[in-house]
């Protein structure tokens, strides 16, 4: 009977350790998604949590120097300065006016220190207002009347 007690205790310790590692890993990789205006409403918790901030890159705000890319994100008349110090190159769609996601933490100096940047430019893929996409235009042109 004593042999089963030791085995049961060992199994409980192993299973408990695995559960603890799983929950610690999940909470460590959790990232909150906020807009620029919501970032400042978070207060001090924006400095202690990893946050993904979305906004539009302000025109003429991208400055590259000494391996750091500084730019400003704007959303609903609120802006935040971002310092990207990551190792990965910036995406091709990262330019003035593009929507960008910065992943990192807000510093005590109210500069957002990003470790990853994602960018998209919806206008690049969207048709012009009042104009149908090319595939539909070709179908209309080739359709017999």
Descriptive notes:
It contains five helices and seven strands, in the order H-E-H-H-E-E-E-E-E-E-H-H. The chain is α+β, with helices and mostly antiparallel strands. It has a domain at about 30-125: Nucleic acid-binding proteins (OB fold (Dihydrolipoamide Acetyltransferase, E2P)). It has a five-stranded mixed barrel with strand order 2-4-5-7-6. Strand 4 (about 70-75) and strand 5 form a beta hairpin. The termini are far apart.
CATH class of the domain at 31-125: Mainly Beta
Order of helices and strands: HEHHEEEEEEHH
For the record, the CATH architecture of the domain at 31-125 stands as Beta Barrel
Question: What is the CATH homology-level superfamily of the domain at 31-125?
Answer: Nucleic acid-binding proteins
What ranges have pLDDT less than 50 throughout 5 or more consecutive residues?
A: none
Which sequence of strands runs across the widest sheet? 2-4-5-7-6
In DSSP terms, counting alpha (H) and pi (I) runs of 4 or more, how many helices?
5
- Mean pLDDT over all positions: 79
Radius of gyration: 24 Å
The strand count comes to: 7
Biggest pleated-sheet summary: 5 strands, mixed, barrel
Helix content: 25-40%
Measured distance between first and last alpha carbons: 90 Å
Structural class: alpha+beta
Shape field: elongated
Taken as a percent bin, the fraction of beta residues is: 25-35%
CATH topology of the domain at 31-125: OB fold (Dihydrolipoamide Acetyltransferase, E2P)
């Amino acid at each position: 009977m004593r042999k089963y007690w030791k085995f049961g205790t060992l199994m409980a310790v192993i299973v408990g350790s695995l559960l603890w590692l799983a929950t610690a890993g999940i909470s460590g990789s959790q990232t909150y998604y906020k807009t620029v205006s919501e970032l400042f409403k978070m207060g001090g918790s924006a400095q202690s949590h990893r946050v993904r901030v979305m906004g539009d890159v302000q025109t003429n705000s991208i400055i590259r120097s000494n391996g750091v890319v500084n730019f400003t994100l704007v959303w609903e008349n609120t802006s935040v300065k971002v310092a990207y110090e990551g190792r990965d190159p910036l995406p091709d769609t990262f330019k003035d006016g593009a929507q960008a996601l910065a992943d990192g933490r807000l510093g005590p100096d109210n500069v957002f220190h990003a470790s990853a940047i994602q960018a998209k430019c919806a206008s690049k893929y969207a048709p012009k207002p009042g104009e149908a996409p090319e595939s539909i235009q070709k179908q209309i042109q080739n359709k017999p009347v």
